[in-house]
Design brief:
This protein is 44% helix and 25% strand. The chain has 18 helices and 27 strands. The strands form six sheets. A five-stranded antiparallel sheet has the order 2-1-5-4-3, sandwiched between helices. Strands 6, 7, 8, 9 and 10 form a five-stranded antiparallel sheet that branches. Strands 12-11-15-14-13 form a five-stranded antiparallel sheet. The model has no long low-confidence stretch (mean pLDDT 81).
Length: 762
């Protein structure tokens, strides 16, 4: 709650400052407006007073002359001049004075204004006619504003009707008095225009038709929302307007107030916010530090220079079994650390050296004691605690419980001793390889079997000790292990016979059980192998094969008689149909046996790598057509469709390849026959041939390879059912392909079908 209130203070301060700025801005604006309005009012009032005085002068002059005429209506020009001079002595605004008896000018002052004026009938001048008529009817004075072009365009004329004493006004009408006021002088004395920074303008409130309503000043004043005063004039009313010369501008202090206020609104809350953030951050850091120290799953102790505990976190108290605060003030040595280590050294002396120079032992592992006497092991990280002047005042120790690790290390050491005792005394060879298949371990029994010292084997690649045939077999084993690892995981293993070289140049056969080694993350880090000497068994097998080979070779001699004698018997004649059939059966059986013996011998040579290919140019399409013709009964019986497609051939109808004709035909016959036998009734077999840099033949048939033989599809004697064959077809086909420098692979990824791929070099 306190933190939330603290974070609210800066925004509230910002709002408060903004309110103060707004109040100050409004106050300054109102004060400025009042000052300007006061100045305008004062100027208008002064101008109005001046105009009132000037108009009043003319009105008083007309009144004085009117009073005189009522007494002496027969006034002559000389008397009029004397009287006018006396009346106009202190009236500079009055230009002239005229009398019009019966509306005809009869008297005029001054003298320069008499020529052309005396004798003028005023009723014949349109503007004056109306005013005179209005004066006769109303008996009130009238004013002619400037611009009427009657007398002078810059004059204001006051017309005062004169009625002599009598019964009725119209019958006693004497005439009019014309007082001519100088308009420029009048307006200038009143300050019309610009006066003290104030624009003044004067207009007639109700102007007559065709007259300009503006009497003086700039008309724009009336568009500036001016202050207006009314000025009463005879028979009318004028409007005096005033406004500041630059318009109603804002206060000159406005920008300063707004900018200063904006800065205050931004800077003060921001500064306070920064202070609050810093203070709250430090409080939060202190809280985090407290939580970190007291909730950390590590032992945190602080030791003074006397070796006493001055601080410990809650985890340390729980770990050692003490109540809160019980460890404070107790010596480290004798309470948590035994006085002597296992090797007998004094831990007090060790602590004193650590206090003097913690950098000499920043990390150490020590045996500790819990309150109940239980022994635990703790790994310590030590650092010095320094005062402001840099002097060491204590030691900060952070410990981690490693008791389980110590126990595991001890158990591991015991197991390693047992393993080494077992590995170094068994007769089998135990060896290990890293991820690059270099030896990392080999048991002493290897020296007894092969004669190599351990130092001669460690670090070297396993292929350095394999015969050429076993190198190829080892690579095949690695591929098998990789395939099994994807499905079986860490339990992957395989057993294979490998031929290793010996120190004296001989070789030895070892039956090796190999498994992949994985780390905790499931990554492969090497191979582990256990090998057993089976050289004697291999020699016995070789001897048996030699005997079998010799027996097969010796069988060819009597087979010659079996195959040849039926023909000799036919030459003697007198044979019936049954005897002919029996002779044909004997010939076919002998030929089949001879073919099997020859094929067995050829397979043996190919296995040993001694078979010499009799390469000729073979037409692949012709061979396939022959096989297809030979299998026609089987194809027709099951209703199988066989399709052959050629890709990348430059010549249509033939597809030559360099190969041993008999072996090549045998290889294709075995694979095509297997595809036909595995296909269901009404199925299909497709053969796709592609020749691009080499020869690729893909044989696809419906039907999947049984799971029981997928991993051993090309192994010798591998068959899903002994009744269906001996298991030598795929083995001999692959052996023939490899003898030609190629290979055969099988794919069963597509459900419900099998695809065998033959690859041969160009």
């Amino acid at each position: 709650m306190f933190r939330r209130i603290s974070y609210l203070i800066p925004p509230l301060l910002g709002i408060l400052v903004a309110v103060f700025v707004y109040v100050g801005y409004r106050t300054d604006r109102d004060n400025h407006t009042e000052r300007v309005r006061g100045k305008v009012v004062q100027t208008i009032n002064e101008s109005k007073a001046s105009l009132d005085a000037s108009i009043g002068t003319g009105v008083r002059l007309a009144s004085a002359m009117e009073a005189f005429l009522k007494v002496s209506p027969e006034l002559d020009q000389a008397q009029f001049v004397v009287l006018a001079e006396a009346l106009l002595a202190n009236m500079p605004a009055v230009r002239s004075l005229q009398l019009a008896r019966n509306d005809v000018v009869s008297h005029s002052y001054p003298f320069w204004n008499t020529n052309g004026v005396i004798g003028t009938d005023l009723t014949k001048i349109q503007p004056l006619r109306t005013l005179i008529q209005r004066a006769k009817v109303s008996g009130r004075r009238q004013v002619l504003i400037p611009g009427g072009r009657v007398f002078e365009p810059e004059e204001i004329v006051i017309l005062a009707p004169v009625f002599l004493p009598g019964n009725g006004a119209p019958s006693n009408y004497w005439g009019v008095i014309c007082v001519h006021l100088d308009a420029p002088t009048l307006f200038r004395s009143a300050g019309i225009g610009v006066s003290g920074g104030v624009l003044l303008a004067l207009r007639d409130k109700t102007p007559q038709e065709g007259q300009n309503p503006i009497l003086a000043g700039d008309p724009v004043v009336f568009d500036m929302t001016p202050m207006v005063r009314s000025i009463s004039v005879p028979s009318g009313e004028w409007l005096l307007a005033g406004a500041p010369s630059g318009g109603w501008r804002v206060s000159p202090h406005r920008n300063a107030i707004l900018i200063t206020g904006l800065l205050a609104v931004v800077i003060l809350p921001a500064s306070l916010w920064a202070i609050v953030v810093i203070v709250m951050g430090r409080l939060k850091d202190r809280e985090r530090y407290y939580q970190l120290v007291h909730s950390a799953k590590s032992i945190i102790l602080r030791i003074n220079m006397d070796g006493d505990i001055v601080f410990c976190n809650e985890y340390a108290e729980d770990f050692y079994g003490y109540a809160p605060g019980e460890l404070i003030g107790k010596p480290l040595v004798g309470t948590l650390v035994p006085r002597k280590a296992l090797e007998g050294r004094s831990m007090r002396r060790y602590l004193d050296r650590l206090l003097l120079d913690p950098s000499a032992h920043p990390f150490n592992e020590a045996m500790n004691l819990r309150r109940n006497g239980e022994i635990v092991w703790v790994a310590w990280a030590n650092d010095s605690v320094r005062s402001k002047d840099g002097a060491t005042v204590g030691l900060l120790c952070v410990g981690t419980d490693i008791t389980d690790r110590k126990l595991m290390e001890e158990a591991l050491r015991q197991r390693e001793k047992q393993y080494r005792l077992l590995a170094e005394n068994v007769t089998d060879i135990i060896w290990g390889l890293d991820a690059d298949y270099h030896f990392t371990y080999v048991s002493p029994s290897d020296e007894v079997v092969r004669g190599f010292k351990r130092s001669d084997v460690l670090g070297r690649h396993i292929e350095d000790f394999l015969t050429p045939a076993s190198k190829t077999r080892f690579k095949d084993i690695l591929r098998v292990l990789d395939d099994q690892a994807d499905t079986q995981g860490p339990l992957t293993s395989v057993t294979e016979d490998l031929e290793f070289t010996c120190f004296d140049g001989a070789s030895v056969w070892l039956e090796s059980h190999l498994g992949i080694l994985f780390n905790e993350e499931g990554e492969r880090i090497g191979l582990q192998g256990v090998s057993r000497d089976i050289t004697d068994r291999k020699l016995a097998e070789a001897l048996r094969e030699d005997v079998e080979r010799m027996a097969r070779h010796d069988l060819k001699t009597p087979l010659g008689a079996v195959i040849g004698l039926p023909e000799e018997i036919r030459k003697r004649g007198n044979l019936d149909a049954g005897q002919e059939t029996m002779l044909a059966t004997i010939e076919n059986a002998g030929a089949s046996m001879l073919e099997l013996i020859n094929r067995s011998l050829d397979l043996y040579k190919m296995e040993c790598g001694t078979y010499v290919l009799n390469r000729t140019t073979v037409d692949v399409l012709d061979v396939l057509e022959q096989i297809k013709a030979e299998s026609l009964p089987h194809i027709s019986g099951k209703g199988i469709s066989v399709g052959i497609e050629v890709l990348g051939s430059e010549v249509v109808g033939i597809l030559p390849v360099s190969a041993d004709a008999e072996l090549f035909r045998s290889m294709l016959s075995n694979l095509v026959t297997n595809a036909l036998e595995a296909s269901p009734e009404g199925g299909s077999v497709s053969i796709v041939i592609e020749k691009r840099g080499g020869l690729t033949i893909s044989i696809r048939n419906q039907g999947e390879v049984p799971l029981s033989v997928r991993e051993t599809f090309f192994d010798k004697y591998s068959t899903s059912s002994p009744a269906r064959g001996s298991g030598l077809g795929t083995y001999s086909a692959r052996l023939i392909a490899r003898t030609h420098g190629g290979d055969i692979t099988v794919e069963t990824s597509a459900p419900g079908e099998t695809r065998v791929i033959i690859t041969l070099p160009q």
